[in-house]
Write a structure and sequence with these properties.
The chain has about 700 residues and is of the alpha/beta class. The protein has 23 helices and 21 strands. α9 packs antiparallel against α11 and α10 runs parallel beside α11. Bound molecules: adenosine-5'-diphosphate (ADP) and magnesium ion (MG).
Amino acid sequence: MTTGLLATPLQFLKGVGPRRAADLERVGLLTVEDLLYRFPIRYEDRSHLQAIASLRPGHVVSIAGRISSCGLRMTRRPGFKIFEALISDTSGSIRATWLNQPFLRDVFTAGQHVVLFGPAEMRGHGGLQLTNPQYEILDDEEGETIHTGRIVPVYEKTGSVTAKMQRRLVHDALEQVPTDLPDPLPESVRLRHSLPSRHAALLAAHFPPEDVSVEILNRFATPAQRRLIFEEAFLFQSGILARRRSAMHEAKPVTVRVDDRVRESARKILPFKLTAGQRQALKEIVEDLQRSQPMNRLLQGDVGVGKTIVALLAALVAMENGLQVAFMAPTEILAEQHFISISRLLQTSRFRVALLTGSTSAAARRALLAEIESGAVRLVVGTHALVQEDVTFKQLGLVVIDEQHRFGVLQRATLRSKGLRPDVLVMTATPIPRTLALTVYGDLDVSVIRDSPPGRLPVRTVAKPESRRDEVYAFVRQQLDEGRQAYVIYPLVEESEKIDLKAATEMADHLAQEVFPQYRVGLLHGRLKPDAKDRVMKAFASGELQLLVSTTVVEVGVDVPNASVMLVEHAERFGLSQLHQLRGRVGRDRHQSFCFLLYQSPLSAEARERLRAMTETTDGFEIAERDLMLRGTGDFFGTRQAGLATFRLIDLVRDRECLELARREAGAWLDASAPTSATISRLVDAWEQRFRLIEIG
Ligand code: ADP
Ligand code: MG
């Protein structure tokens, strides 16, 4: 898809030496194509040249004129130099000054034609002047400007490569791009949506024509920008779809069948009636299991909706078909918890369940490994220890991964390579807005459970300033008096872990001795050894401790149904999704539960929005939407989260509709063009290269 020019390494461009090439490479800019597919961060209107005589202070202006005189001026402050130039046009003249840029001495000379862009300011006796203006020296009076006198693209500075240098590089590169540049967008699709050609779009996205509105440019909504965004979306979506089609040829070694015997076996272990959402998700999963191609499914559902039982029923179906199942959790505590509840549920079944974690003793581990290899153990619950090299399965058919956000992608890949193309079910309690899930999880299918088991009461959430701490304590005491338990969470600020730890330790002491002397208080923090952590968590789970102070976020997914209070200290420091996760630790039983968000005033506008969202809704998807809007995509997903595509132009919030349109168009195009398997695999290769998407599962 690339022509020679686009594939050219940047060091071959004029003005790019090894140092600049290295700086550019650091931000992923290797080729001319990379450079051209990096939008300016914004656009500035520097057109509308003004007559010097008409300038007024307090405005950012563009002027064109001739340098009458210029030179370096010392100031009274030692080491402080000012470069001054006097610029004249037919209407008058004005002074321009640059602070501490003595090298300008070698840039400007009298007689040059220049265009300047910058703020016009009143400076004491000196009158009106331009302060630190952007400048461009013209070869002659009529010359084309690229830095001034037009709508100018502003690029993000990268190392030693300034915005201005990039503008020059982009400009030079664009001059060499052939007008008949091959276009990866099918012509029919392009014309249907009235999108400009690739060549025209590249030109106009970087150096917009005069008549384009800067406001539309800065929303990245001009036809040129939209076309390039759509191009990326189309390539992404057609790659996903192609990959899915090519997977259709990878048959699983064992096809799962569901008959009355399997159904009866599932019914026997089911302790309650599934909700409609659980039934639907299970149906989708079991349909996948029965297909001849491996499943790659994400099961999304807010904390407490009951994902585990759904996964376990799927596991049962696999086991009834002679397959083994690996059930992975991100922490030992969670693995143990799953192990206990799964063992209980499978008690009456004939399948053996085992737990394998980092703390399994060497001898037990050896015995267990043999039983996994022989197939005697049918379901293994574990942590990442499960994917260590020496674990061999006899017939691994299904891998369930809980709370995938905390799981390394490579670990999943290793595990996957152990079985013969196992089905993979990834569960997450971090709801991703639906439209995003479709696209950011690459080729995962998505099932969503939105309803909750019957009888659950939504958690009541209250935000209070710290000054009203006593009221909150009084309330917590009431809950403890009624036999409930409570969490108190401290934020963790990485730079000052020690201080946080101290604060939390003191707080735990204070709560234990002065506030709740009649109750037992435990402390959990990141510095504790795993087994110490475990002991505290277990003591809380068993009710031995009534109040748990924790610096680390209480392990995602930990289930202590009797806990009815979540008190978050410094709630203003937590992200919205994080707060929601914390709140999900309570409200897991019939009791009314409460979430108190104690904050320190004054609140930033964003923190206020976060707390407001928390008190207004308990719907995880709504929270996710709002979080995304508040934080933008980068922060929402963390930097470069593994398993997510890396886009060059697409902004997942801004361009959601475009992504959906591209998905429809890509599907229709693949159907219509019926590509050969060679074309499909080329598409898949290009897709993997381009989006550097790491395989999930
Ligand atoms: P999560 O989706 O957060 O993993 P769990 O699977 O841990 O949720 O389920 C939360 C609790 O709800 C568990 O105690 C589970 O036994 C219970 N539960 C799940 N589904 C139902 C249901 N349909 N009816 C009643 N209780 C249920
Ligand atoms: Mg769970």
